[in-house]
Structures are given as C-alpha cells and as structure tokens.
C-alpha cells in the first residue's frame, strides 16, 4: 500500500531493515481518529496526531507527548472546483471560523489571502 509508506517515514520500497530485521512494521489500518486512538490504547500502534485531536480524546490509557522537533504539517479542506453545494460552503466556513477563533494571531486578514476562501469563492 504505497499511501501507507508515506506515514512510515520511508521513501518507499517497503520497510527499511538492518541486521536485526525490519525497522518498522505496518500497523492496523484505521478509518477515523477515534479508531486510531483506540489502536494506540491497545498497544497496536504509535501515532503522530495534532494537539487538537489529543485534546478532544483524553484517555487514562494513552500518553500524549509533544514532538518538538517534528516538521509541522498542514491540514487542508478541499472541494470540487465550481461546487455550489450549500453543505460544503457551511462546512468550510465553520472550519475557518473555528480555526480563526483558536489561532487569531496566526491567521492573516481575509483580504490578504491569495487563494479563494468560502467567503470570496462562489460556492
């Protein structure tokens, strides 16, 4: 499964190995964040997750620690070009509102954006 190789930290070609065997092995395939936290709690996987997910799923049987030297990554919302579906527009607007409310100092003013947002795009 090539899409899973990305998350292993490898550049493809399967598990890296040394004389002791593979340096990593594939964990269970999960379909949603709650299931991911569950497989971590069952000691079937270790996961890198955003702080917001850790805050939404506090558990006594899972330890969350920041990885201060990890490269940051972005989460993006994508929708079909030219979509006029009201439910998509509401979702994107709500996501932007929540993001801005949580990080007001980090978000540029709407007029400074280079790409269309739900406020400026014709949805």
Task: Write a concise synopsis of the structure shown.
The protein is mainly α and 123 residues long. It has helices at 2-7, 33-41, 51-56, 86-102; strands at residues 17-18, 21-22. The model is unreliable at 108-114 (pLDDT under 50).
Care to describe what's here?
The protein has a two-stranded antiparallel ribbon with strand order 1-2. The chain has two domains: 2-56, no CATH class; 76-123, no CATH class. It has helices at 2-7, 33-41, 51-56, 86-102; strands spanning 17-18, 21-22. With 123 residues, it is mainly α. The chain is elongated, with a radius of gyration of 19 Å.
| Shape field | elongated
Beta-strand fraction estimate? under 5%
Counted by DSSP, the helix tally is 4
Strand order of the largest sheet: 1-2
Summarize model confidence as the mean pLDDT.
74
Between the first and last Cα atoms, what is the distance in angstroms?
A: 35 Å
Low-confidence stretches: 108-114
Q: Specify the structural class.
A: mainly alpha
N to C succession of SSEs = HEEHHH
Which terms would index this structure?
2 strands, 123 residues, 4 helices, single chain, elongated, 2 domains, 31% helix, mainly alpha, two-stranded antiparallel ribbon
Detail the topology: elements first, then pairings.
Elements: H1 2-7, E1 17-18, E2 21-22, H2 33-41, H3 51-56, H4 86-102
Antiparallel strand pairs: 1-2
């Amino acid at each position: 499964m090539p899409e899973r190789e990305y998350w292993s930290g490898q550049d493809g070609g399967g598990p890296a190995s040394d004389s002791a065997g593979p340096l990593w092995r594939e964990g269970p395939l999960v379909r949603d964040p709650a299931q991911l936290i569950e497989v971590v709690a069952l000691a079937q996987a270790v996961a890198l997750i955003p702080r917001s997910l850790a805050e939404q799923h506090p558990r006594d049987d899972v330890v969350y620690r920041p990885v201060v030297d990890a490269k940051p990554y972005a989460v993006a919302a994508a929708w079909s070009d030219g979509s006029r579906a009201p439910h998509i527009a509401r979702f994107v607007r709500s996501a932007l509102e929540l993001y801005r409310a949580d990080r007001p100092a980090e978000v540029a003013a709407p007029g400074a954006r280079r790409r269309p947002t739900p406020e400026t795009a014709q949805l």
